């Protein structure tokens, strides 16, 4: 029995190998681009959902207190972090949402009551720890609380909470 010479198939084997390598590299490149786009869309979707929830809550509050001018109707939270350890968007949104939920007791209250004792409301967020945000814990401190007309603006500083084990 004769074995055919492989010298005649050498070019065909090389081109087949090059085609298979090109297919693998092309599919890896496509999947990386697809993953990046999907990640961007998911983050944008979370941002829009959070904004929608905030607007729905603000709208309900406005409907309840639209004729009263001296009550807090809206709470805006600004989350800041250290430049060495910046927080990602999803974490910032979750911290903002939780802080807004903690300060929900202020909505609908008279501005004069809040102005008389701001330290009580600041103590709500002094060194408060929020657990389970993307499998990490964060400690929040209130930096500034500003009351403008019917809007309460709160600036908080958030950093990752490191547990010390003894």
A few lines on this structure:
By secondary structure, the chain is of the alpha+beta class. Strand 3 and strand 4 form a beta hairpin.
Polypeptide structure, described:
The chain is of the alpha+beta class and 166 residues long. It has helices spanning 10-64, 89-102, 111-116, 118-122; strands at residues 74-80, 128-133, 136-148, 151-160. A four-stranded mixed β-sheet has the order 1-4-3-2. Residues 74-158 form the Sporulation membrane protein YtrI C-terminal domain.
**How many β-strand stretches?**
4
Instruction: Summarize the main sheet.
Output: 4 strands, mixed
Continuous helix count: 4
Query: Which percent range fits the helix content?
Result: 40-55%
SS strand fraction:
15-25%
What letter string, H or E per element, gives the SSE order? HEHHHEEE
Rg result: 28 Å
Average pLDDT over all residues: 85
Structural class: alpha+beta
Keywords: Membrane, Transmembrane, Transmembrane helix
Pfam families: YtrI_sporulation
InterPro entries: YtrI_C
Protein name: Sporulation membrane protein YtrI C-terminal domain-containing protein
Fill in the keyword field for this structure.
166 residues, alpha+beta, 48% helix, 4 helices, elongated
Write the layout of secondary structure elements.
Elements: H1 10-64, E1 74-80, H2 89-102, H3 111-116, H4 118-122, E2 128-133, E3 136-148, E4 151-160
Parallel strand pairs: 1-4
Antiparallel strand pairs: 2-3, 3-4
Organism: Paenibacillus vulneris
Transmembrane segments: 12-34
Domain Sporulation membrane protein YtrI C-terminal: 74-158
């Amino acid at each position: 029995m004769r074995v055919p010479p492989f010298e005649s198939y050498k070019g065909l084997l090389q081109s087949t190998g090059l085609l298979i390598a090109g297919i693998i590299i092309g599919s890896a490149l496509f999947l990386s681009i697809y993953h990046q786009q999907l990640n961007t869309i998911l983050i944008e979707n979370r941002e829009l959902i959070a904004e929608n929830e905030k607007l729905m809550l603000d709208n309900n509050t406005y409907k309840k207190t639209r004729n009263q001018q001296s009550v807090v109707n809206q709470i805006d939270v600004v989350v800041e972090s250290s430049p060495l350890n910046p927080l990602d968007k999803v974490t910032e949104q979750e911290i903002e949402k939780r802080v807004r939920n903690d300060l929900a007791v202020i909505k609908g209250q008279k501005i004069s009551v809040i102005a008389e004792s701001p330290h009580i409301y600041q103590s709500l967020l002094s060194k408060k720890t929020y657990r389970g945000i993307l499998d990490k814990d964060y400690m929040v401190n209130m930096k500034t609380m500003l009351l403008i007309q019917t809007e309460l603006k709160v600036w908080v500083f958030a950093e990752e909470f490191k547990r010390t084990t003894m």
